[in-house]
Amino acid sequence: MIINVDSDVTTGSNTEVNSRKRLGDALRLIKSIVSFHRRLFITAVSGAAVFAICTVASSIGVRWMVDRVILVRFNEGRLDVGALVTGSILVIGIGLLRAIGVVVRRSFAGKTEWRTAETITNSVIDHVVAQPVKWHRKLLTGDIVARCGVDSDASVSILAPLPFASSVVVMMMVASAWMLYVDIPLGILAVIVFPILLMMNISYQKRIDRYYALAQDELGNLSEAVHESFDGVMVVKSFGAEDRETERLSIITSRLRNARIEAVSVRSMFEAALDAIPSLINIALIVLGAMRVKSGAMTIGDLTSFIYLFTLLVFPLRIIGYLFSEIPHSVAGWRRVREVLDEPIANDPNKTIQIPTAGTAIELKNVCFDHIPGNPVISNLSFSVASGQTVAIVGATGCGKTTLLHLIAGLIASDSGVIAVQPGGIGLVFQEAFLFAETLRFNITLDSPILESEITQALTVSECDEFINQLSGGLDTAMGERGINLSGGQRQRIALARAVAHGRSVLLLDDTTSALDPATEARVVRNLRELSQRNDNKMTVVIVASRPSTIALADEVFYMKDGAIIDHAPHDILYGRNADYSELINAFEHDRDAVGRVGQAQK
Description:
The chain is of the alpha/beta class. Helix content is 67%, strand content 10%.
């Protein structure tokens, strides 16, 4: 028995703590989102207050018309024109003010909601864009998209009913005072409904918020999964994994559906009670009011205005319930938004890049880097590249070539050491070329003011002229998503043209020409080398390559092994003096010959 009592006490204590936490979350949410556009919100609340006061005042006009006009006409058979005019002015004037209050409340509440949503969304997007690549690698794209869109919209859903809810509070206070003034017994009965509905709303919030939080999280999970599935549609279809993907998405949607069904179930019971309780109180008011009129304690006009006012309050009281129902939804969305906004902007690795000595394009001193502590990818690496040189980085798979380029480009930060790159910008072209679903011109210029002559030169260097001329729209041809209209080699050449057109002083190519045939690749590398040797350009090119014919075109080859530069020299010299390098080049050549023989056999 003692254990049970302690358990009950603990449960009650936890419930009280959770209630305080939910209330605190709601108050912090309201304080935060209102602060974005405080003037708009105050205007909406002011309009709501005018509406509330005029709603209560309208019952005075009803009482005046019933007692001074309608009853006089029935009882005395005459029409009091003065009372009719006065009552009409009173009713119409209050009605106009009430209408103005409604227009102001709704207009500015809508402006507050959508401008706040825009502000929050822009803040999240700016925060996400400001984060370095390392931060983006930790999160799924779908989750980031959900926080910028779905969660931002959810966080402001409380703003629409909030001004109306504030007017309901004013209305309840003024109406309570007025109803108690008209008739105390009847007023007490009417006022009882307010704390009842308030307790119902609090109880409802306790039950509903966990379902909304769960649904919001599952919506984020679904966004992640759908984005990933559609992004990898080629892989899914190639391996016949449609059923597996469908099942995976259906499991997530089932969890989302169940959470929302539970929320709807609780909400339907709550709204049914909101309908039933005021209706029952209204019946009781009519019965008791009739008895009060019969006893002479109040007039028919008093009772009519009383019932009229209470009826007007029934629907606004439901807005309180709507506000409470939106709070968990908004809190869940705001929590996910704050998770992004509260995370500090990580240091930009690009800002750690220094300026090398004159005549040097790239210089690294004792650079170390590891993805996992204790498992170094780059080990105490030091080398330099002269300005205007074309350098090939050669090494076995996994030796750190791509990581090295990312360090030089400032996409990731080294754990130690110094990286220096000459001013003029760095252009990094990835092996997997990314193209936007825009025109070819946009994919090359990225909407930057690049001269037509510079675009033409970039297309010539990257050997794009021939296939672009065959397109009906030329540079104005619209690409499909990720450039699906082009082959892999064409996408790589467009990505290379983009880097050349932007005139960066250092060009980093991460096996960028891997999808090209040997002849085209050789022409591209030769074009880049000639461009880098022009006096007016002095562009430095660093190529990660595995094709011997391409490697041989470089001014110098850096042989990389286990995260370090083992040797460097022109290809012929390095091939003759370094056994490991020559063995790797022979393996490259053998692999390509084998692939060629297989291709010929298949033909």
